[in-house]
Design goal:
single chain; about 375 residues; alpha+beta; Helix Hairpins; HSP40/DNAj peptide-binding domain; 5 domains; four-stranded mixed β-sheet; three-stranded mixed β-sheet; 9 helices
Length: about 375
């Protein structure tokens, strides 16, 4: 049995919509998989919190959940809490009996258009700082020749004779309970309730045409690939003047040559030579915002982490920014010349540290093999 949505978000049943949003944002930041690397349960907790928020942020879904719990289908779609009794009321009385329209199908009016999905490629910096971008999609747009009516110039759509404009056809059939009334979409008009005798030549009566459309997109600062942008009303328009669906934009962020993204923090694995690690060094370190003074103290070891606060990604829909973490890796020299090797051997001798003897030449080893 799924956990109670209120328990998941850590709120009470009288919590306001704004408090629900704040609770979800806090949990999303804490439970996001990017913020919990190596934790196999982070993704499940994040999805659980998201499902709870989706159910409680919508007033109608919340009301159904408060009344019927998980069995009411509060997190998606509409559910019949009376186990099919609504269908019986529809059959015998021509209505649902539970506050429905009595039509048994979709409400009258033009059909809505389809939702669309596209991908927007972003650079690492564009995702961190936000940007203005454009996306181009193949979509259905209103036919200008017939003004989305679907009928040729000088003619009009007429009421469908088969369904008399309702968009639905009712039939009576026999069952064990007696006569049952069933409702189906009218096949003549496709549910629109209208028929067109003289369709528009440009759109073949659909009232819409397939074209390319370009939309301006505002990308907020701090997004990552787990986010999707939704542009309401920018999807395909519906047939014959129907409302447009939504455009969902999936983000694809390019890797950076230096930085890794971990939630709102950035990580750089900085390699420094052993001399700088041993003696210390002052660096002009290049962040995404410009150079920052950075001191590596003498005796720094591999794995040491230095933090530059507020130089990470902005908190999405919040204030402040993450931090920049610099993890040091000390590189051991491998290409010493004779003078450098001699210096290191003298250093080892001065510190009383045992080291390997110098490697002998090839000629010397051949001679020893014959002795």
């Amino acid at each position: 049995m799924p956990r109670d949505h209120y328990e998941v978000l850590g709120i009470g049943r009288d919590t306001s919509a704004e408090q629900i949003k704040k609770a979800y944002r806090r949990l999303a930041r804490e439970q996001h998989p990017d913020a919990n690397p190596g934790d196999p349960g982070a993704e499940a907790r994040f999805k659980e919190a998201t499902a709870a928020y989706e159910a409680l942020s919508d007033p109608q879904r919340r009301a159904r959940y408060d009344r019927f719990g998980h069995d009411a289908g509060a997190t998606g779609g509409s559910a019949d809490p009376f186990g099919g009794l609504g269908d019986l009321f529809e059959s015998f009385f021509g209505g649902s009996g539970f506050g429905g329209s009595g039509s048994g199908g979709r409400p009258r009016g033009p059909l809505p258009g389809e939702d669309l999905e596209t991908v927007l490629d972003l650079s690492f910096e564009e995702a961190v700082f936000g940007c203005e971008a454009e996306v181009t999609v193949r979509t259905a747009v209103a036919c200008t020749a017939c003004e989305a009516s679907g009928a040729s110039t000088g003619t009009y759509a007429e009421r469908c004779a088969t369904c008399e404009g309702s968009g639905q056809v009712r039939r009576v059939r026999q069952s064990v309970l007696g006569q049952m009334l069933t409702t189906t979409v009218c096949q003549t008009c496709g549910g629109s309730g209208e028929s067109i005798e003289h369709p528009c030549a440009k759109c073949d009566g659909a009232g819409r045409r397939i074209e390319s459309a370009t939309h301006a997109v505002t990308v907020p600062a701090g997004v990552d690939e787990s986010r999707r942008l939704r542009m309401a009303g920018h999807g395909a328009v519906g047939p014959r003047g129907g409302p447009a669906g939504d455009l969902n934009i999936r983000l694809r962020v390019a890797d950076h040559a230096v930085f890794e993204r971990h939630g709102d923090d950035l990580l750089h694995r900085l390699h420094i030579p052993a001399t700088q690690a041993a003696l210390g060094v002052h660096l002009d370190y290049e962040t995404l915002d410009g150079p920052e003074a950075m001191e590596v103290p003498a005796g720094t070891q591999t794995g040491a982490i230095f933090r530059i606060r507020s130089r990470g990604a902005p908190h999405l829909n919040g204030r402040g920014r993450g931090d920049l973490l610099i993890e040091v890796t000390v590189d051991t020299p491998t290409d010493l010349d004779a003078e450098e090797e001699d210096l290191l051997r003298r250093l080892a001798e001065a510190r009383g540290e045992a080291v390997a003897e110098p490697a002998e030449g090839l000629l010397s080893r051949i001679r020893q093999a014959f002795n």
